[in-house]
Amino acid sequence: MFRLASDLRVYLHRAPIDFRAGINSLAIVVEQSMGQDPFQRAVFAFCNRRRDRVKLLIYDRSGFWMLLKRLEADRFHWPRSQEAVLTLTTEELHWLLDGIDIAAVRRHPVRQYHSVG
Fold it and tell me: How many CB atoms lie within 10 A of CB 33?
């Protein structure tokens, strides 16, 4: 399994797309539908209608990468939200790709302490 850098931004396109789309079509979706710059240091994630495939679009200074993951028997737990585009951490994207329902994961809250004693 590959791992993405933890400082990358991750944008998840919530609505399913036509999976015949290639790099150019996905870059247009990023610009027009998601309102983002496809050349920024980010990962853009897309799924198909059956939720058994995910495509990732990444630009790396000299060209685009398009990665595809296909599940044979299972489905991805695509987050449900009213927003058209969700922002995730790379850790959450890895969870999603590993089959974890990120909506069900609850973390401890971040605490800010003023002193040790």
Answer: 13
Burial of residue 5 (number of CB atoms within 10 Å: 0-12, 13-18, 19+): exposed
Task: Give the pairing type, strands 42-47 and 9-13.
Answer: parallel
pTM, whole model, 2 decimals?
0.85
pLDDT in tens, 97-113: 988 888 777 767 787 88
Distances (CA, A) of 10 to 30, 51, 113, 117: 12, 18, 29, 38
Phi, psi of 88 (to 5 degrees): -120, 165
Q: Is residue 79 within 8 Å of 103, Cβ to Cβ?
A: yes
